[in-house]
Amino acid sequence: MLASARHGARRRAGALLAAIWLFGAAGSAGAASELATGPVSGLPIPRFVSLKSDRTNVRGGPNKEQEVRWVYTRAGMPVEVTAEFENWRRIRDWEGAEGWVYHSLLSGRRTAMIVPSKKDDLVPLYQEPDPTAGVLARLQAGVLAQIKNCNGHWCEIVGKGFAGYIVQERLWGAYPNEKVE
Question: How much is the pTM?
Fold first, then answer.
């Protein structure tokens, strides 16, 4: 019984430390935006990554004792890392939903989701990074692609049954003007 009580106290203490850290991060939005790298990984915050697994639990806080809020079921989906706490990463998806995942469930492989300017529009995929180049295909919202590279305006992408160039602002998975190699 004593060991169980100690374990519960440790979990509450860990949750309290995480809450203090989260409150501090949320309460200092100005300071958070000035932070260029994650305190644990040393990598940029925010940054895009992708999900490694077809089953990724997203939790309410940065530990396994936190409830699973939802489960992603699409490997390769792009997500944005917005914070770090120990081995946990707070992520945001293309719809703006945020939660915590264990770092090993994320990959540095860059992927993107097609996001048309209007919901039902199709996004042209070009032969070359030029709006006068031939159109290879027209992609629907939500199509997933791997980013090969981006020059700040155009990205070369590849997906199931397609490869070509797309205007960078039509992707969720690359920041405006970001260069990806």
Answer: 0.79
